[in-house]
């Protein structure tokens, strides 16, 4: 067996002995309020210092009541930090007098007289980026592992008469905030102390708190991430004070700025409430965490019972479906070579796939039946022709799962192609151990090579009956859907086309309604069926080590018991049976498109989830490309650019699969994208790809200039934008970076963008306990005012790995952070703190830094390296391993699988795609292993000692890999034999 790879497969897990308890606990933890909107709302916003502490200075609030369709202020006021200096307090008091406002309150007075009373009155607590404001009006915060974990905020303290020390007020509840993701959080109150003689009335329990972050709500409604200013601009209301930059100090201008923020927040709340109320759904606004929340609520409003509640799907079959689950297909086929293209995509891919597969009948069924269909599917695959896949009736045969023994057929394969990171490729697979795939992937495998895979067993999923209780709903109050007769996925797409042509609506109404239907169709057709929420089990009270839950793991034919510090809690609509079929259907459509291009002798540049960039020019012809099957007159390798007419013919062939009404919209489900056209005329588009999801589309002018029209930010999006501005959906700096890359690649005159010289930065928000665990330990004993706080924004500098570290520093224990500022001119002057030991460092200028300083990589360094990022999932044109300099038509990598598969949980590493979460620096994939629990240990003392030692040095002396040492430093369990090797090194001896 040559260079076998460990194939990784997803699993379904169940917590042993606690399934019903955990479901009930979650329902109790986040109870549904009776009224969608309360009568009262408290809006608040804080201003803080701009140093490392980001300590509270002051804040403004509006207490409002609902009247005549809107919330109106009945009380406005300010509050200030309990330890604010007298001069600053005087400034705030003078401002309040000049504006005829009530006298300002201390933070403690605000909590007691306004905040807690508002909660008792069952008011909604509202704000924009509310997590930040609530953590900054608290007096202390720690991470609690109870009830699923969360930040436990102490809201009030008092000074003891006997010791003069601060003590927590046991009669005021703690506020627990559990971040859900980068967009939302769960909020709840703890119980207060029982009655006492001193305070018999104060012990009365509080009602459940209701917190609404408008940043989350607008994300759920519009599927767009906004700042307060951009949200107000999008809704046509007055936003922040124009041009004012917070100073981190107290002044009349600063108070006025903060006051306007609160007013803008209230105006935004009223607009969003009106929009939210157009949806006839049973959902509280504070529960609208994402567009999927809205989609789920619509499914609920139609009376559809979630799959977990309705269907008795055996966990063994859920394990089969999860083993067959892969995400969308993304691939680079031609790299480091400019080619002419026509960019195509599948219209509304997942709603279309759902409709073709008939999955609405499954979702509304009374029950699901699982039957053996081995012989039927074997015949189906053996006799398959490419034309048959264009028959809509054929797609209704594909809801099945097949166990196959791959022998060089092309399948989705999840493995570590580069030996380090998980990746999914569409590659030939050879495996002695059988593996389960969804029906559409079996058909795609036959299309790729014409070879039928060895099918060992097939289970077909069949819907039976229709559940009772289904009822009509009206989307956004305007478009009626009857789940008993309408296919929801089909009806939403058709409604969108009707709205587009509805002249009775204003242009604005059409745009808003069309956009909502697009969001609803996409958010309700896939992700909710594979929603898994990783949760830490907690901490063992006796040992202090991470606690572990007992799990039953299901993956394909395999099941076993194990333990884990993390559990994956399924979402309400979790059903991997649907998710695997849907994503498989999307990959099948791309396989069909690829096959059609191949049958005409063509090639494609790349594909990305629902799109394929076909090599094509107006007249067609040969294009120079290393590894191509054709030859130019000068002997160079070439590929064929298909004429536009051939591409249009291929696109037209997909008309046969159009499941929608022909009176509305285009005939084909494949679209030639708008980027191919200018003023209604098709233009020549060019494409250039570096690796998977790293590409740009552009045009060339007669004077050989270029204009980037679409560029991927993948691999750059983790960086903080060094300049403001957007070009379409892409940050302007990314467009400029790609223009530089293309000019370099094409040998054109080039000028570096000004931001290339800036140190490369990442912006993060503290959201989990791991983020500042070492720093917080160093800050122990400091008052909360002076410590880093949950939700604080930070900058983290990207250090040059070659000589960028100060003398004597361990690169494996060196992560610099500083308080966030968007002013790039200030970055070099910031005080940078090492996350691991709390020491302060300065950034040195490139080439001129002192030995004690740190040298950062610049944005220019990142972009220059980005240009040569290798494509790990494919081979070079000559069949060798690809490098950063590989160019031309890539070959697919043959994956020879080891006998044992790695069973893994949810892939959580999104560092290259998003920002604002520093925990992504240590994100990982959960791997479940059987029969090792008694041999695995967590050694807390060893964990502490290793944090003070060099990873590389320890690895060299012990023979333990650096990856394993990093795992021990993060508190993960390892074999006892491994800990023995490490302890021997720490004691001064070398393990033998």
Describe the structure.
Among the domains are: 8-21 and 535-570, no CATH class; 38-277, Nucleotidyltransferase, domain 5 (2-Layer Sandwich), CATH 3.30.420; 290-531 and 573-613, no CATH class; 761-866, no CATH class. Helix content is 28%, strand content 26%. The protein has 26 helices and 55 strands. Strand 27 and strand 28 form a beta hairpin. The radius of gyration is 30 Å and the shape is globular. The model is unreliable at 19-33 and 909-923 (pLDDT under 50).
- Taken as a percent bin, the fraction of beta residues is 25-35%
Count of strand segments = 55
Number of helices: 26
Q: Mean of the pLDDT scores?
A: 89
Largest sheet: 11 strands, mixed
Low-confidence stretches: 19-33, 909-923
Percent helix: 25-40%
Radius of gyration using CA atoms only: 30 Å
Structural class by SSE content:
alpha+beta
What is the rounded distance between the termini? 31 Å
Shape: globular
